[in-house]
């Protein structure tokens, strides 16, 4: 997990961090990527000058670029944002509305409730190496996702409802559904079409993790420097619906807030666009002529408890620790008003939001009572936390709140990779505090729930909760909700599942916050702030 969450359902022991993008690439990227090197390169000028249509768009991303670049596996904010410019699905979705549009396919199916969707590929579509996109490439990717012996993040988003994908002819495929599932149309953007002739080679999936990227999107990857920067060039062979507006792009990875803000501000600003803007810097950036806009969404600070360790196996203890937190103070002090205390697993802007049956308002007396009923006293907790800037800002409120009810609390923020390496190695822990944002994948509540909950979900493995009787019943109820054909009934069933998640408080948000993006309106037009980490410039252009 990273500011976005980098997280995921999977049993594949190449590690959770690979799926989430929290694991740094340990080796150089494939030779197919030019100019790859280790070491800091974020000050590189990749050319094009500062004026004219061929100048370089420089963006600053507040998340690491050293995560997993395999589109079937990743939840890395940086890598997912990059892949949206490098690859296409049969359908892709608008980055803000999340409405599906025809990408590699020529049209969106007329009947979303059909159990078969037939797609014809866009004439003349080619991969970055010049080879044509074929139906075999589409089948290749879906076969990987649906393979019962291959665990990927994408599998959890498709396997419950998608039976198979068949080749009809060289340019036509048919998706066969297990039951009507109209939400699946928007999910097709998560199945990026990849060339079989590249990724079927031995070792190619490992190379994809490290940064091998051959897609059919409007940009191609020109260089990749883990922990520093990733560069893109316009793909001249692209003939799809959202052509490249920039000849070159240089995306810098700067996780620390101060240097990220410095890069976009002032007379010597070296970038035109930056995400993950700290709230305290908004007024300063606006006074300097920049546009700063936000998006409310699923981005959240969550707590995950180790239910395999007493007393966190007792739901009363988990609830007590949530009731103890002064979330209003956290929003006011740490988030400068750009957030809301969680009233559900879903954020309040989600169309399916319903106030949960259990809402953790600040109630220290109730917290003390729950601990007493659980027979717990003298509790000492060390919070293992990611060092994402806004999470670090929130942690003192958690500590002060827990100290106030007699729970002696220490804070241990560290690199995201270090936190989840410990999780992957099954190290002992008490409580993890980190950030998550399933909106990277979509808005539908079924998808968001499956992102964190499921019998084969790695999150549930980290929490040691998948075998709990309440969890097993929850997973069965989720499956029934997925299959429910009536939209209103399905929504109610999913909300009932969310009530269980709220009551159990195994992995649950404390606050949902607004993500801020800044850009120079004198340089860029068409930028829209999105409510999840990363950027999307497929509809942007030079001003």
What is the topology?
Elements: H1 16-20, E1 56-61, H2 77-86, E2 91-93, E3 100-102, E4 116-120, H3 135-146, H4 153-158, E5 162-169, E6 172-177, H5 184-187, H6 196-199, H7 204-210, E7 219-225, E8 229-234, E9 248-253, H8 257-264, E10 273-274, H9 282-287, E11 291-305, H10 315-324, H11 327-334, E12 339-341, H12 364-373, E13 380-386, H13 389-404, E14 408-414, H14 416-424, E15 431-436, H15 445-452, H16 458-462, H17 469-483, H18 487-504, E16 507-519, E17 524-525, E18 541-542
Parallel strand pairs: 1-9, 1-10, 13-14, 13-15
Antiparallel strand pairs: 2-3, 4-6, 5-6, 7-8, 8-9, 10-16, 11-15, 11-16, 12-16, 17-18
Helix pairs in contact: 10-12, 11-13, 17-18
Could you explain the architecture of this structure?
- Belongs to the bacterial solute-binding protein 5 family.
- GO terms for molecular function: peptide transmembrane transporter activity.
- The chain has helices spanning 16-20, 77-86, 135-146, 153-158, 184-187, 196-199, 204-210, 257-264, 282-287, 315-324, 327-334, 364-373, 389-404, 416-424, 445-452, 458-462, 469-483, 487-504; strands at residues 56-61, 91-93, 100-102, 116-120, 162-169, 172-177, 219-225, 229-234, 248-253, 273-274, 291-305, 339-341, 380-386, 408-414, 431-436, 507-519, 524-525, 541-542.
- Strand 13 (380-386), helix 13 and strand 14 form a beta-alpha-beta unit.
- The two termini are 35 Å apart.
- It is globular.
- The strands form four sheets. Strands 1, 7, 8, 9, 10, 11, 12, 13, 14, 15 and 16 form an eleven-stranded mixed β-sheet that branches. A three-stranded antiparallel β-sheet has the order 4-6-5, with helices on one face.
- Mean pLDDT is 90; it is low at 1-43 and 45-49.
- It is 30% helix and 20% strand.
- The chain has two domains: 56-253, D-Maltodextrin-Binding Protein, domain 2; 295-515, Roll (Dipeptide-binding Protein, domain 3).
- The protein is of the alpha+beta class.
- The protein has 18 helices and 18 strands.
- Helix 11 (327-334) packs antiparallel against helix 13.
